[in-house]
Design brief:
Elements: H1 6-15, E1 37-42, E2 49-54, E3 60-64, E4 77-81, E5 87-92, E6 104-109, E7 115-119, E8 124-128, E9 135-140, H2 147-150, E10 167-172, E11 178-182, E12 187-191, E13 196-197, E14 199-202, E15 214-219, E16 225-230, E17 246-255, E18 259-271, E19 275-280, E20 286-291, E21 298-305, E22 308-315, E23 332-338, E24 341-346, E25 358-363
Parallel strand pairs: 9-13
Antiparallel strand pairs: 1-25, 2-3, 3-4, 4-5, 6-7, 7-8, 8-9, 10-11, 11-12, 12-14, 15-16, 16-17, 17-18, 19-20, 20-21, 21-22, 23-24, 24-25
């Protein structure tokens, strides 16, 4: 999650009531109550933790991002931790654009254990081998014009503003292609099998949030649908049923040969909550969503029932966690399961307070759905 509007940033800074918290420690935690919050890890400079990725071997990878000022032009880093939050290794990202603010997101893995890291400057996907540290470019993401300016409906962005590429989250399809959300150009890319130049896959007007667009994306078992969050949307869509400042959870039906069959809204957030990364429970009845907006700053459990999808649980209980968290919740951006625990990144995008750069450990009391990684996907063996 990386909103780039100074105006929105100013509003969010006013909305965030920041106080100080005391540090905690990670724990697998027998005897912990559901919703108990601890600190899994404090994130070192350049800080601003973005996505967290958990491997089948319970290794945890966290990428660093930029803050709202965009003033840190140093190289991004990826940190590797064990299941108890001990730092094992640090990787510095190579080949980033000099003089630009940098941020990376560890968005996917393949069955060989290689990581797929989404970079902002330049807009690309990097293959990172965590064993050797080697890095290479897997995909690139073009800067496409708005559809209105280009006078066409394909290979363009259905946005009100002409944003730059901002690859955010990723999910594999069964054919080996990689879907990547673009938070700024407000569309979904499709990277062909084994990499290359990404093509616009989905650019529905309902994704146009003016400034904020698609965020988290997860392929569901069977490969016939995926879930996706958007921070806001529907600014220019006549079919939008909600306030454009509300975020949403959508189901996207998939068709043969990587086609899609439309979006179905499952749930809507409150205004300004900005749903971001999420994780799905093993029984697929619960979706835990990080709420990155200034009125969110939490994880919301959205549950499926006979009456549809409803908000079932929110942690922390207050908007910034001041009463029940060891550190203030300050731009929560991603959720991943580690056993029965939720790992939640606390980016502190608007405040840039280093003591807030943490990954939270929240007891969920249930296990997560295994992320789908089809056989044979990813880079060629030479990478």
């Amino acid at each position: 999650m990386s909103p780039r509007s100074a105006g929105v940033a100013a509003v969010a800074l006013v909305a965030l009531a920041v106080t100080t918290g005391s540090p905690g420690s990670a724990a697998a935690g027998k005897g912990r109550a559901r919703g108990d919050i601890k600190i899994f890890a404090h994130i070192a400079k350049p800080g601003e933790p973005s996505l967290t990725l958990v491997t089948p071997g319970h290794k945890v990878f966290v990428g660093t991002f930029e803050d709202v000022s965009g003033s840190d032009t140093g190289a991004s880093k990826v940190f590797k931790y064990n299941a108890r939050g001990k730092l094992l290794r640090t990787y510095e990202i190579k080949g980033q654009t000099p003089g630009k603010a940098h941020g990376v997101q560890v968005a996917a893995r393949d069955r060989r254990g290689r990581l797929y890291v989404l970079d902002q400057e330049p807009a690309r996907a990097i293959v990172l081998n965590p064993r050797t540290g080697s890095q290479s470019t897997y995909a690139t993401f073009p800067d496409v014009p708005t559809c209105s300016a280009a006078g066409r409906s394909t290979n363009c962005s259905n946005t009100s503003n002409d944003g730059v590429p901002e690859p955010d989250y990723a999910a594999w399809l069964k054919d080996g292609s990689l879907l990547v959300t673009d938070y700024s150009q407000q569309l979904i890319w499709r990277v062909p099998p084994h990499g290359g130049v990404a093509k616009v896959w989905l650019n529905d007007k309902i994704l146009n949030g003016e400034l904020f667009g698609p965020a988290g994306i997860v392929l569901m078992p069977g490969g016939r649908s995926l879930l996706m969050t958007v921070a806001s949307g529907g600014v220019t869509s006549p079919n939008s049923e909600d306030d454009p400042a509300q975020g949403r959870l959508y189901r996207v039906r998939l068709k043969h040969r990587h086609g899609f069959g439309g979006l179905h809204r499952l749930w809507s957030s409150g205004v300004g909550q900005a749903p971001d990364g999420f994780a799905v429970s093993r029984n697929r009845r619960d979706v835990y969503i990080a709420m990155a907006g200034p009125t969110g700053n939490s994880v919301v459990e959205v549950s499926r029932s006979a009456k549809g999808w409803r908000t079932a649980w929110t942690i922390p209980r207050s908007v910034d966690g001041a009463t029940d968290s060891p550190v203030i919740w300050d731009t929560a951006t991603s959720v991943q399961f580690l056993g029965q625990r939720l790992l939640v990144t606390n980016q502190a995008y608007f405040t840039a307070i280093p003591s807030h750069w943490v990954v939270f450990d929240v007891l969920a009391g249930e296990r997560g759905m295994r992320l789908i990684v089809p056989k044979g996907v990813g880079a060629t063996a030479r990478t």
